[in-house]
Structure formats: C-alpha cells, structure tokens
C-alpha cells in the first residue's frame, strides 16, 4: 500500500497568474488532457469540501458557475456531490461559456439539475460553492453580477471558494469591483500571490492548498531553482536558527549586538527591543540610551550592558559617550523610540560598517537624508523595517505601487540595495532576488510596541549569524516567523486582546512554539 507523497516542498512556492498559466501550459503541451486535469482537481476539491460539510446539517448546496474553467471545476464538484446524494442548486448567469464548461453544464442539466439565472435561487442553500472566477479574472465585476456577489455576501452563509474568492485579483489581491467573502478558499496547485496580500485577507477565510501533482520539473522550468516569490514555512524558518550551539561555544561567538533606542518620551521602546534581543539568545547585548534612563533599563535587563549617552534638551540621544566605538559590534539595531532629535547618531551609524537594522525613528531620520543613495552606499548589509507609513516617507516614488505590497517590496529592495521588511498583516521581505512572505500571523500584533520586539529579536539573530555566515535574508525570515508564531500562541492563550508587547516577549520562548535545542520539532 502506497501513501500519497506529502509534497511539503511546494508549500513555499508562490506564483503569479502568468506563471501559473505557463506551468499549466507545460502540462497540457506534455499531453495532459485539459478535461482530465479538471476532473482530477475537482475530485480533490470535492474531498476537501466533504470534509468541511460532513459534520454540519446540509439540506442543499448552491453552486455559482462562471464562464471559464473555474466554473467548469464547480460543475464537476456539483456533479460529484449530486451523486453523493446532496441536493444541488446551480446558478449560472452567463450566456456563453468556454467549451469544456459548456459541456459540463449540458451534462449536469441532463441529470435533471436546473440551471438558474437568478441569484435568489441560492437563498435557501446552507452552503455555497463559488466557481464564478478564478485566476482568469482581469476586469472588475459590475452591474447585475456585482449585485449578485453583494447579495451572497449579505446572506453571510458558508461560502467555499474554488481557487480564489471571485472578484479578487490573483496577483495584487485587490478587489475588482466587488468580491466574494469566502469562509474557506481552496487554492489550486500552487499558492498565488493574492494569498499573501493584505488587501485579500478579509475575503479569503481559511485557506488551503490543493496539490494536484504538478511535476516539480515543470514548476522549476518556470520559476527557476530559486523562485522569486517564496512563502515562509516552519521548515524553512527553523532551518536557519543558530541551533544547536557547538559545545565549545562562548559568548563572543553568539553575536555582539548594540541596540540604539529610547528617549525620555519613549523609554519602553528600548526595553521591548532589549527583551526581544534577549529572547534571540544573543551572546552579548549592549543598549545605548539617553543616560538619564539608564537605571530603568538596567533594572529590566540585568544581563545587558547599558550605555548611557549624552542627551539633547528634549531627552533624546545626542551622541555616543567619548571613546565609544561601534567597531566592536557584530550588528546594530537602531531606531525604536529615538525621536527625530537623535539624527546625529543615526547618521553616524549609517556611515559605519556594521550590519544594521533600521526601524521606527531611525527610518524617519533616514527619510530626510535621500534614503536610496544613503542605503545603496552602505558597505555592510542593511535591513529596514518600515510599516506602510514609514515606507511612504522613504520611497515616495513607490507610493502608488503600495497596492501590490509584494512587488513594491521587491522594487524598494532593488532600488536601495537593502533588505526591506514591509510590516503589515502579511509581512513581505524584499531581498536582492527573492521576496519572502509570512503566511501566518495574528491581528493581536496590531498594537504599539510589537514592532520594537521584532527589531530586538531580529538584531540578536542577525548578530549571531553574521559570525557563521548564514545569509542575512534567511535570518530575517526566521525572525519574522518566530515573532508571528509567538503572537499566535499568545493570542491562543490570552485572546487577541491580551497580547501586549511585553506579553509577546514572554512568548518568544522556542519551547513554547514546539521546538527544542536540536532544532527538531
Ligand atoms: N491552472 C491550473 O492548472 C488549473 C486551473 N483550473 C481552473 O481554471 C481556472 C482558470 O480558468 P480560466 O482561465 O478559464 O479563467 P476563469 O477564472 O474561470 O474566468 C475567466 C472567464 O471569465 C470571463 N471574465 C473575466 N472577467 C469577467 C468579468 N468581470 N465579467 C464577466 N466575465 C468575465 C472571461 O471571459 P472573457 O474575458 O473572455 O470575456 C473568461 O471566460 C482556475 O482558477 C481554476 O479554477 C483547473 O480546472 C485545472 C487546473
Ligand atoms: N493585522 C496584523 N496582523 C498581523 N501582524 C500585524 C498586524 N498589524 C501589525 N502587525 C505586526 O505588528 C508589528 C507592528 O510594528 P510597528 O508598526 O513598527 O509597531 P511599533 O513601532 O509600535 O512597535 C509588525 O511586526 C507588523 O507586521
Ligand atoms: K472562485
């Protein structure tokens, strides 16, 4: 007896509509009949739909059928559910269909299932299957079709979307006119960009990839060996953790990090970044703050070396103490809570040769300095971690393109020759060749201070791996995954309202996330 192969490797590929079409074309050119592929895919969708509805009382199932192959998929699913004894209501408001879809429509009619032109026909269904549009949708849904979609959403029924919620653009995740609010979406074959775009999130519901055995060679023929768009998974995130430690390790082999943060106004930001760094396991931690808040930092982080700095009149860092050198550090994390008065030291750090994470006010100060040329001229690696507001200040020429977060991150990374971590519900990390995207997170993180924790965690990891030459983009994705997983676990235990930034730092313990020192789960 053979078990189906669990193809975890395909979980990290993410494709555009164009790439998906090119991969699909390769299958057809190789001899796979289109109709056979549709049967196979729809058979798998049917199995997954059954697993979702078996435990709930279902009297009748509504099916929305579009004009293309998304509609064809829906009709095959409808046929199978009919033979399983479910009562089906088919709604197809299109006068023309693609040939294969038309053929399935004809057959389903021959089975005695009525094809309705009127959306009200679905009103009494318990579950609706959405096969209106998939990755072929390119123009907005308008007029009666838009009204039908809005009506379905207003009913607030359970809606299972095939491939994408109809109305969502495959690449940008934008709503084209209007879109189905799905409770579940079955993404077919390979993850599409829309599944990692913030703009689509509220429409997707629970998401699931339905693998239909696209040969790896066909995927690689289109995407290459190092795909441009990649999803962060548990496997690829933990692979780059600095674990296990060599038995003969010592503190200077585990990274020497300097955090530059805090002001009278934002003392907590420095503490939160420090606690984030603590969780990373960094070998040595120094935190530069305005000297009058040094006692506060020392009491919260006894293991850290707190560097008290001369202050501006408004309580920001004015300068580093005399004889203080940045050269001793493996990495610097700079920005949380600095205020814009700390521009002198930010400039000094940018001029230095240490790998750098720049966040918050560090970015706002950078925005005044011609960011693209400043970043491009740095000798060492720079990771910038803007939220969309900071991003707009840094890259005013890219503001219009922010509606496609994935592509805009890629462009910003290429222009600035830096690693760009664009914050949001689905964090995107732009690097020279790849955009990494984090598919799992929680809105519990949407509150002040959670970004400071990420900066510290990332700083600690960066300092540790600079020494063992792990690529920097690899560790950035690990930090993003770790931060989000801690948020998810904390939200499970304390609800989405219970995850203040300090609580988040308490959940960064890897054991709580199901890992151990051998880096095995
Ligand atoms: N990839 C794979 O390997 C597999 C893919 N499969 C399935 O195929 C799906 C893609 O199928 P697809 O290419 O036929 O496109 P689809 O999304 O059904 O719709 C396009 C149709 O809609 C029309 N249309 C567009 N916009 C419109 C509007 N605003 N208002 C009105 N009409 C509009 C457009 O017409 P036209 O632009 O020509 O007027 C065209 O006819 C994919 O999502 C998956 O479910 C599986 O079966 C097998 C494996
Ligand atoms: N809706 C959301 N879902 C998941 N994560 C979110 C959401 N909103 C914000 N985040 C995350 O929370 C953090 C907020 O960081 P930031 O905006 O810098 O806040 P702060 O500077 O106050 O710490 C980022 O890591 C961001 O990706
Ligand atoms: K759909």
Automatic annotation (TrEMBL):
UniProt KW Transferase keyword: no
Entries under CDD domains matching the protein: YXKO-related (cd01171)
Organism: Limnoraphis robusta CCNP1315
Reported cofactor(s): Mg(2+); K(+)
Protein name (database record): Bifunctional NAD(P)H-hydrate repair enzyme
Binding site for (6S)-NADPHX: 69-73, 134-140, 163, 269, 337, 387, 452
Family statement: In the N-terminal section; belongs to the NnrE/AIBP family.
Domain (YjeF N-terminal) ranges: 20-220
């Amino acid at each position: 007896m053979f078990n189906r192969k669990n193809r975890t490797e395909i979980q990290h590929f993410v494709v555009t509509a164009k790439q998906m079409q090119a991969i699909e074309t390769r299958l057809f050119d190789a001899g796979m009949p289109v109709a056979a592929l549709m049967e196979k895919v729809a058979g798998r969708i049917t199995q997954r739909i059954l697993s979702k509805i078996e435990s709930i009382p279902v009297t009748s199932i509504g099916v929305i059928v579009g004009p293309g192959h998304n509609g064809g998929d829906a009709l095959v699913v409808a046929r199978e559910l009919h033979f399983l004894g479910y009562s089906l209501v088919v709604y197809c408001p299109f006068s023309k269909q693609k040939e294969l879809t038309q053929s399935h429509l004809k057959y389903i009619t021959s089975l005695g299932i009525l094809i309705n032109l009127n959306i009200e026909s679905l009103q009494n269904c318990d579950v609706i299957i959405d096969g209106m549009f998939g990755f072929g949708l390119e123009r907005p849904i308008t007029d009666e079709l838009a009204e039908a979609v809005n009506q379905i959403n207003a009913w607030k029924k359970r809606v299972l979307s095939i491939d994408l919620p109809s109305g969502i653009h495959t690449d940008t995740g934008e709503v084209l006119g209007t879109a189905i609010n799905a409770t579940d979406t079955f993404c077919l074959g390979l993850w599409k960009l829309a599944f990692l775009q913030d703009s689509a999130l509220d429409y997707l519901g629970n998401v699931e990839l339905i693998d239909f055995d696209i040969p790896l060679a066909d995927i690689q023929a289109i995407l290459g060996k190092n795909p441009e768009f990649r999803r962060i998974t548990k496997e690829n995130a933990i692979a780059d953790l600095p674990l296990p430690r060599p038995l003969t390790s010592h503190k200077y082999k585990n990274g020497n990090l300097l955090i530059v943060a805090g002001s009278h106004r934002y003392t907590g930001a420095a503490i939160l970044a420090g606690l984030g760094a603590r969780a990373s396991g960094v070998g040595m931690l120094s935190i530069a703050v305005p000297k009058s808040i040094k006692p506060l930092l020392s009491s919260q982080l006894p293991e850290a070396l707190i560097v008290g700095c001369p202050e501006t009149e408004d309580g920001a860092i004015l300068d580093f103490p005399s004889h203080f050198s940045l050269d001793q550090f493996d990495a610097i994390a700079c920005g949380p809570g600095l205020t814009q008065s700390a521009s002198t030291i930010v400039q000094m750090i940018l001029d230095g040769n240490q790998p750098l994470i720049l966040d918050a006010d560090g970015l706002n100060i950078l925005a005044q300095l011609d960011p693209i040329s400043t970043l491009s001229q740095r000798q060492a690696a720079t990771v910038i971690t803007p939220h969309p507001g900071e991003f707009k200040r840094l890259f005013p020429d890219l503001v219009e393109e922010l509606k496609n977060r994935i592509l805009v991150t890629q462009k910003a990374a290429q222009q600035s020759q830096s690693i760009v971590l664009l914050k949001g519900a689905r964090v995107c990390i732009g690097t020279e060749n790849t955009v990494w995207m984090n598919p799992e997170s929680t809105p519990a993180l949407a509150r002040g201070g959670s970004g400071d924790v990420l900066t510290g965690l990332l700083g600690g990891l960066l300092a540790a791996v600079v020494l063992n030459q792990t690529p920097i983009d690899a560790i950035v994705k690990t930090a993003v995954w770790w931060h989000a997983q801690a948020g998810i676990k904390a939200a499970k235990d304390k609800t989405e309202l219970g995850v203040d930034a300090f609580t988040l730092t308490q959940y960064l313990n890897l054991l709580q996330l199901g890992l151990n020192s051998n880096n095995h789960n």
